[in-house]
Design brief:
There is one protein chain. The chain is mainly alpha-helical and 477 residues long. It contains 19 helices and no strands. It is globular and about 60 Å long.
Length: 477
């Protein structure tokens, strides 16, 4: 082994450290557990009933800020040093987390949650570019597994940190809900300087983005901004039916954007990376999060102190990483559809998972995580950094789409049935969740078909190119 090859090992280790600290720290800002502390927050902030909607709108701004920041940060990470962009994002994220203890008004709630989202939206694409700078299937697979696994684990971790209080029990500090899982960000703050030390003098392997790539990376920003605005407005002021219409229009729009971008040499990839990113965003958090919420509501209705079970979600996160790493030994053309099959099976198995059984979430979440990790890691193979970043810009709008769909279905069910007891409320939420699972399974099948079409088109183009070159080669004789 040459000395130059040996020098890459510490750099790869530093990249892994950031992948398993900075990326989870960013994704763990997405869950909003404020609904568990609304009475305590309203009392501390002296809010009337009419002002609670504004509080909930403020706590939900993190995801909106994150999805708006991702395309801009992707351009910055390709224009400047990715590690510098990542450290800047970590600084904003840490500032948003540290400022939580000083929050004493709704505008400050909005400010800290927006800062957390902006910091997270900078960190995620910068971490992806750092992985691409080091190269190799294993690093890309580790990044894909960490993203899919954390999306599944995020809400159970948040609800474990902010449990639903029992009747007559005071909440120690409602502001915990604004930063329920801060420790990965602290770990990332340690890993960032360690990365610089481990990297040493290994040369950067990526050239700066050209103007065409930067323009392509900014393509999702305007539609994402419009959808984010509609989602924020619709979340509180529109009927559940109107919100369902907004979410229902967003999914085909995202798919159309992925298909249009995939035709470009910069944003295209041979295995439909952008579409797989949409599937991972649409299915992982919007399926796992409400399932954790149902477990919390059911446990509260049954006066069960166990709360939200963490081990099934943690096992699913491990399955996501295992599936991603397994993709490095499989042909991508087979691994991507296999991942879709596992994701669809996991979603449908959710119909058979009783929320009162602490191990029942393992039934849908394990295949969901394994499939998401497998499909995402395989789709990144042979994709350029521009294609990976373009797909990432569609992942979080898809997450918001899924979240808006399932929450609107649940709100519609509660509005129609008006349950009088906790048990009736849990049953209504479960019925709506089952409807969402059927919609999610149909969406997964649609996205799988679109991905297969893109892969077939790319394979046909490659074959035609090779045939043309062979025909143009003069033969001896």
């Amino acid at each position: 082994m040459s000395p130059h090859a040996h020098d890459h090992r510490p750099a790869a280790l530093g990249t892994l450290l950031l992948t398993f600290t900075a990326l989870p720290a960013a994704v763990l800002t997405v869950p909003d557990a404020a609904f568990h502390v609304v009475p305590a927050a309203a009392s501390a902030l002296e809010l009337g009933d009419a002002e609670i909607a504004g509080l909930l709108r403020a706590t939900g701004l993190t995801l909106t800020a994150l999805l708006l920041a991702v395309p801009l940060a992707a351009v910055a990470a390709r224009r400047f040093r990715a590690w510098a962009v990542l450290i800047a994002g970590l600084a904003v994220l840490l500032a948003g987390l540290a400022a939580v203890r000083f929050v004493d008004s709704v505008p400050l709630v909005a400010a800290v949650r927006t800062a957390q989202g902006l910091g997270a939206g900078i960190v995620v694409p910068a971490s992806l570019v750092l992985v691409w700078e080091r190269g190799g299937r294993v690093l890309a697979a580790a990044w894909a597994g960490a993203l899919a696994g954390t999306l599944i684990l995020a809400m159970p971790l948040a609800l474990e940190a902010v449990p639903m209080p029992a009747e007559g029990t005071a909440v120690p500090d409602w502001r915990v809900a604004l930063a329920p899982v801060p420790w990965p960000a602290a770990a990332a703050a340690v890993a960032a300087p360690a990365y610089l030390l481990l990297r040493r003098r290994v040369p950067w392997t990526l050239t700066a983005a050209r103007r065409a790539e930067r323009a392509q990376l900014l393509l999702p920003f305007v539609p994402a901004a419009g959808f984010a605005f509609l989602a924020v407005v619709a979340a509180q002021d529109w009927s559940p039916g109107a919100r369902l219409v907004v979410a229902g229009l967003a999914l085909p729009a995202l798919l159309g954007l992925a298909l249009a971008g995939g035709r470009d040499a910069t944003a295209g990839s041979p295995f439909g990376c952008a579409i797989v990113m949409i599937a991972v965003g649409l299915l992982c958090h919007p399926v796992a999060g409400p399932l954790a919420g149902l477990a919390s509501v059911t446990a509260h209705a049954r006066e069960d102190a166990a709360g939200v079970p963490l081990l099934p979600a943690a096992a699913a996160a491990v399955a996501a990483l295992a599936g991603a790493l397994a993709s490095t030994r499989l042909r991508a053309r087979l691994a991507v559809p296999a991942g879709y099959c596992l994701m669809t099976a996991g979603v449908l198995l959710g119909l058979a998972a009783p929320p009162h059984d602490p191990w029942a979430p393992l039934l849908p979440l394990a295949p969901l995580g394994a499939g998401a990790g497998l499909a995402l890691a395989a789709s990144l193979r042979d994709a350029g950094v521009g294609a990976a970043l373009f797909g990432l810009s569609l992942c979080f709008p898809a997450l918001l789409t899924g979240q808006l769909l399932v929450l609107s279905l649940q709100a519609s069910r509660l509005e129609r049935l008006r349950p009088a007891t906790g048990a009736q409320q849990a049953a209504a939420l479960l019925d709506a969740y089952h409807v969402w699972l059927l919609i999610a399974a149909a969406a997964a099948a649609l996205l799988a078909a679109a991905t297969a079409r893109v892969s077939a088109r790319c394979a046909g183009t490659t074959t035609a190119t090779r045939t043309g070159k062979a025909a143009a080669t003069p033969r001896a004789g």
